[in-house]
Amino acid sequence: MKKFIRYCLIGSAIMMAAKDVNNLSAQTADLRLLDWQPKSQLVVKETKIDKPKFPVIDIHNHLHRWEKMGQFLEEMDKAGVTLCVNLDGFSEQDDYLEQLKKVKELGQDRILLFFVPDFSKIDEPDFAVKEAKKLEEAVKMGIRGLKIHKNLGLIVKDKTGQLVPVDDPRIDPLWAKCGELGIPVMIHVSDPKAFFTPLDQYNERYDELAAHPGWLFYGDEYPSKDEILAQRNRMMAKHPKTIFIGAHVGGLPEDLGQLSQWLDTYPNFYVDICARINELGRQPYTARKFFIKYQDRILFGTDTPCDTEAYRIFYRFLETDDEYFDPAGGHHLQGRWMIYGVFLPDEVLEKVYYKNAEKILSRFQPVKSGS
Q: Model-level pTM?
C-alpha cells in the first residue's frame, strides 16, 4: 500500500512538472520578439545630472513646431542649453523666410537657423549658382549654416532618372559659397549600417526597422552606404575651405577606426554626436579614446526637440561612468542594448559642449548689403 501511495505521489509530481514545462513552452512560443521587454536585474550606480558642467550649444535640432517654442526655450533653460540650431530653413517655396521671422519673434537670440537647398531644381541651368545667391541673401537676414538631408545621394534624382551623387559637380558653387561666407555645412548622408542590410534574423536594428520599414535602404534601387560616404569624402576634399559637420558621428559611429582615418585626412571635417549615443555608449572604451583624441572636432547635438530629460541622458553618457543604462529617452529606441558612460575630462567636455561649436560659428563673415 505504501509503495502504491509513493508511486502515485511520484506520478503526480511528474505530471505537474510536465504541465509546467508545457505552460512555459506555450508562453515562449506565444511571445513575439517585438513584444519582449526584458528588465535588467543588475544593481548599478545611477547618477543624476540636472545641469551639465558647462554651457551647451545644441548644434543639431529640428524645431519647426513654432507653437511649442515657448516650451522649447523653457526646456533649454532647465537643461543648461544656451543656444540651439534649427536645421529646418527650407529654400523650397521660400519657407526659410517664415522660419527667420519666427526666430526673431520667438527665438530671443537662442535659436540659429540653417538653410536647406531645394534639390528639386537640380536640372535648372546654374542651379547651384542661383541657390548660392539665395543663400547669401538669407545669410544677410540671419541664416548661419547649410543643412543637407540624407536624401542627397540616396533618393534625389534628376530628370534623367539618375540619382544625384553627393559630389555632383552641379552642386559645387553652393559648397564654395559656404566657404566664402564662413558658414558650416551640416551634412547627413547615409544612415546606420543596419539600415543597408537585409531585414532578417541577423539585423541588429530589427525592432526599429520593423516599426519603421521606410528606413530600410537595402536593395538594388539604393546605392551602398560605402559609396554614399565615398561621394561625401570626395566632395569635402574638393572644398577644403568649407567646414563640413558630419551629422550622427559622421555617418559611421559603428566604426570609429575608419572615422578616425577620415578626420585625419580631411581637416575641414567635424562630427556631431546627435542621436548616436546608443552606438557610442556600447563601445565606451573606444568611444572615450575617440573623444579625447578628437576633442577639437566633436560637437554636441541631440536631433531631439528640446526636452530636459532627453538632454540629461546625453549628459549622463558624457559626464559619468554609469553602467548599463537605457539611452532610448534621449532620442528613441535604436537597437536592443544598453549603454555605458564615458566620463570625459572637463577640458574635453567643455569643447564638446560648446567651445567647438563657438569656434565654427565664429568663422562667419558678415555679408555687406551692397555686395
A: 0.91
For 227, the grid coordinates are 559609396
pLDDT at 26: 47
Burial status of residue 341 (CB atoms within 10 A of its CB: 0-12, 13-18, 19 or more) = buried
- Residues 273-299 as b/e (b if ≥16 CB within 10 A, e otherwise) read bbbbbbbbbbbbeebbebbeebbebbb
CA-to-CA separations, 282 to 33, 76, 229, 324, in angstroms, rounded: 21, 27, 23, 9
- Residue appearing with cell numbers 579625447: 292
User: 110 vs 80, 224, 255, CA distance in Å?
Assistant: 12, 38, 34
Between 36 and 29, the more confident residue is 36
pLDDT digits (tens, 9 = 90+) for 317-356: 999 999 999 999 899 888 889 999 999 999 999 999 999 9
Other C-beta atoms closer than 10 Å to the C-beta of 80 total: 19
Residue 88 has pLDDT above 60, yes or no: yes
pLDDT at site 133: 98
Domains of the chain are 56-307+344-361 (3.20.20.140)
Would you say how long the chain is, in residues? 371
